[in-house]
Amino acid sequence: MSSCRVLIAPLLFMFLAALSSFGCDDGNTTRIGPSSVTRNDRFVSSSITVPNEISALAVPAAFCPFASPFLAPASVVVRADGTSDLFLRDMQLRFVDRAGVTGAFRTISSVEMTSLFGSTLVPAFGTRTFPVTLPFGCVGGITGTLFIDVTALDRTGRPNLISLQTNVR
């Protein structure tokens, strides 16, 4: 084997290894190019849960459409797994009965959540429970599914939407 091949083989191997590393980008790196710096950080990890099943509560003397005859109470538990605080931006609640009829819809903004809970903050590595209720029953059946969409922001303002559902009996 010639000395030229002995020198070229390791250099060729290093070149191919360096070239192949460009295909391993996971989108969480900082790229520096000739004209810009781009950073695609991911949202701080969190978990949001609700019970698998909740019971509808009857509202005494309810009269549609002025007062819905049932309430769907749910406890939305938010846990901040990362090193950043989380802030709830909004929650959307939607009840769909077993036949597929959408019976009620409600959006709770951060302003309303602050009024209800004092704050939308979930501290880093902390857990908070947000009890919410959706009045329903003027349209559709009594049993079905409560869909909950929660939008949370981390400290830098990156949003994350999590969709949950629970059975209403």
Description:
This protein has helices at 3-20, 110-117, and strands at 30-32, 37-39, 46-49, 53-54, 57-58, 70-80, 86-97, 102-109, 121-122, 127-136, 144-154, 159-168. With 169 residues, it is α+β, with helices and mostly antiparallel strands. It is built from 2 helices and 12 strands, in the order H-E-E-E-E-E-E-E-E-H-E-E-E-E. It folds into 2 domains: 3-39; 46-168, Immunoglobulins (Immunoglobulin-like, Sandwich). 15% of the residues lie in helices and 46% in strands. The chain is elongated and about 45 Å long.
Total number of helices: 2
Overall CATH architecture of the largest domain: Sandwich
- List low-confidence stretches: 11-41
Inertia-based shape: elongated
Quick overview:
15% of the residues lie in helices and 46% in strands.
Name its key features.
single chain, 169 residues, alpha+beta, Immunoglobulin-like, 2 domains, six-stranded mixed beta sheet, four-stranded antiparallel beta sheet, 46% strand, elongated
List strands and helices in order, with pairings.
Layout: H1 3-20, E1 30-32, E2 37-39, E3 46-49, E4 53-54, E5 57-58, E6 70-80, E7 86-97, E8 102-109, H2 110-117, E9 121-122, E10 127-136, E11 144-154, E12 159-168
